Amino acid sequence: PPRPPWRPGDGRVVRLAASRPSPTTRTSGGTSMTPRSDLRSAPGSPFAGAEGTPSRPPEPAAAERLAFWAREAGNLDWETPWSQVLDWTDAPFARWFTGGRLNVAHNCVDRHVEAGHGDQVAFHWEGEPGDTRTITYADLKREVCKTANALLSLGLSTGDRVAIQLPMIPEAVFAMLACARLGLPHSVVFGGFSPAALRSRIEDAGARLLITSDGQYRRGRAEPLKANTDEATRHTPSVEHVLVVRRTGTEVPWTEGRDLWWHDLVDAQPDEHRPESFDAEHPLFILYTSGTTGKPKGILHTSGGYLTQVAYTHRTAFDLAPDTDVYWCTADIGWITGHSYIVYGPLANRATSVMYEGTPNTPHQGRHFEIIERFGVSVYYTAPTLIRTFMKWGEHIPARYDLSSIRVLGSVGEPINPEAWRWYRTHLGAERAPIVDTWWQTETGAVMIAPVPGAAPAKPGSAQQPVPGISAKVVDDQGAEVGRGERGYLVLDQPWPSMLRGVWGDDERYRETYWARFAHLGYYFAGDGARYDEDGDIWLLGRVDDVMNVSGHRISTAEVESALVSYPAVAEAAVVGASDTTTGQAIVAFVILRGGVVRSAGDVTAALREHVAREIGPIAKPRQIMVVPELPKTRSGKIMRRLLRDVAEKREVGDVTTLADSSVMDLINAGLADSR
Ligand code: PRX
Fold it and tell me: Which part of the chain is the AMP-dependent synthetase/ligase domain (predicted)?
């Protein structure tokens, strides 16, 4: 029997009375000092339950925070209301909106069409060669339904995983939403990742279907993609079908019975599909990110809490007006920014977005500005690395275009240096658009720290304050909050709706990576250094672990090292992130060659760079590889990356007294002087 139609507003039936956010929900660590003993037993403390601390009535700030999130969740359509906002008894495994049921795709698509907005543009899409497509919400609904029907025809059922490696084309969005609609967790893999990287992600998730394309446009050229994915799927028996979108017309290898063309399968499907509701904690997607070991972690996100926070942050951080704004996030859907701020957040908010397929300098360096002018982009969200690239190209380029539509500018991925901030503000923002510097991570799912546009006095280079509903602190080694003007580690001391729910298939790694560092306090350890300024505002200082940030992409030193040592000529390798004026950090590798390898450093290093690109992807190519006779190690055998960073950044080498052999640095320097 047909199920009752969706009833908008069901989500407002909540146990906690909705309340207006009060200043106390905006907890800036710099201004509110909670005694530590209170934190330990606070109901929000992740380990309160685990330690068997008797539960107490929630402290007022925690209750208000939950009420705040309940109100935000009420902006979504729920088929069944939740019974509890947060269940933290199994901390650090959170359950938000327990008992609630919803369909994420319905919330991103159908409900807008049902409310009469079918003709509103969801995406102004532009391909790198200049072709365009306009996709309204009604179009989106039809395409998502057809795709969902196609996936059903392949026998996929709730819970099956789908891997997606696609360029920035509308089918990528259709595929993600079709998965969401059917309760199939997707795992999107960035188009620039190698077959080996794709393979390990498919294997880890056990994906049954891979969705890809024949090729992708990159800097004006059509490059093969299907040929690469075939290399990956040769070793992945879990993949039963490969669904292929025709994008470039590139010739493709074909496996009869397994491979299917999108235009054959999807286009023939009925364009209606009735969505089923899923538990608020139903897995929505897995997204792999680099950690401190060589193996990427599958970060797991679920449905109700994730959608609540991405929608809320997208609306408030950019002050979104769905009827008038044209919003453009320049990320790739292969990263969390693309998931949360191209797909789920904007669509949940009924935004009109621009989606662009290609590189910013194809066919000319004004491409982004031309697109802003053509579509009247009012909210533009990008990464500091691109801003610094624009700076290098010169301000005369944006000056040729009418950028007066711009109202809000966003930044994400790495700390934005004040010079880039000012340039952004002057040359794109006409000295008036607020710049929203958003700090967050794949793990946090959504923006956590950002200035409210226009509300706070701007501070070039500071993400400033946790957004309302979020609590963050800067703490010392012991977890005690540092004072104003002091540095420490960034922690999140309260759970949040879009938090990761774990590492796919590895609960221990989840606890170990994020919760062990401050286990006695139950804080989430972000892996970033930060400081409070004299006003209590937060400044992010970069990673404190062995994770590099190259052009806003996270790459672990261990991942690159293991790629390097898999090359036969390499005996040992150490990798550091050295500061770089364009990319933030650049990868610098030090390698020891195996005995007997004739050292023609030029040849070896060129081959090694290609090898790393093949193993991981071009984004992981070292900027520089130095062949050295030894590596600096402590007595316990740990590589002292600090000293290598000194070499890579051409500084005086620091304190070497903890080295097992303090002459190693002289040896390295002498060798490098030789080869320079
Ligand atoms: O070091 C921080 C940096 O990027 C890391 C998260 O990387 P990823 O999971 O790939 O997500 C990037 C996009 C959300 C953080 O640990 N980072 C991100 N945004 C900022 C930042 N550092 C400083 N300021 C930011 N606005």
Answer: 115-503
